[in-house]
Design goal:
By secondary structure, this protein is mainly alpha-helical. Helices cover 56% and strands 9% of the residues.
């Protein structure tokens, strides 16, 4: 008897642990591997929920179920069998170097270095970016509403309204968005320390 097993990448364990710590509601492994291999890999990386021996259309059905249950679902894959599920998911993430051309073309995001440890960074950055966008929109709307109400009553001059509402808010929202440039990926050595 000859047995062959793939080695689990260290960055897979790091990505799973960091995403769980970040509050990702559910991590599910969808694989075409057999039940025994899938269970062993899921245990090694710390994933409780896995589905094995899936055909491409079964992966799509699983993504549909997860989307119905959780709303937003990201699918990470590298092969042609993952492509339909990545296209169905809210966000498809392809492993760039190891991924097939079809997977790369279908994905919304490609990890060009195949570094799974970048997934928590991607998750964190997208959450923070959504927050900054909301802050910018509400601050702009509130400022313009206050200025618009003040102009007819003479409390605010038209020049001040233009300067504060356009130039001022442009500077403010740009500065607020620049905070995102300080978000950096956590490295495995940072997490281990």
């Amino acid at each position: 008897m000859i047995a062959i097993a793939g080695e689990v990448r260290q960055d897979a364990w790091f990505a799973v642990e960091t995403l769980q710590d970040a509050g990702v509601e559910q991590l599910v492994m969808l694989t075409s591997d057999n039940e025994g291999a899938a269970k062993a890999i899921a245990e090694q990386v710390g994933i409780d929920n896995y589905r094995a021996e899936l055909l491409p259309e079964e992966k799509v059905a699983a993504i549909d179920e997860l989307t119905e249950e959780y709303g937003t679902v990201a699918m990470v894959g590298d092969g042609i069998n993952d492509t339909p599920a990545m296209a169905t998911a809210s966000v498809g993430v392809a492993m760039g170097a190891a991924g097939t051309d079809t997977a790369l073309e279908t994905a919304d995001i490609a990890l060009m270095a195949d570094d799974l440890s970048k997934l928590p960074y991607l998750y964190d950055l997208s959450r923070r970016a959504n927050g900054v966008i909301r802050q910018n929109v509400w601050a702009s709307l509130a400022t313009k509403a206050i200025l618009a109400m003040g102009v007819p009553f003479g409390f605010v001059s038209v020049v001040l309204a233009v300067l504060a509402g356009d130039v001022g808010m442009t500077t403010l929202v740009t500065g607020n968005a620049m905070r995102l440039s300080r978000v950096e990926p956590e490295s495995r050595t940072d997490a281990d320390a």
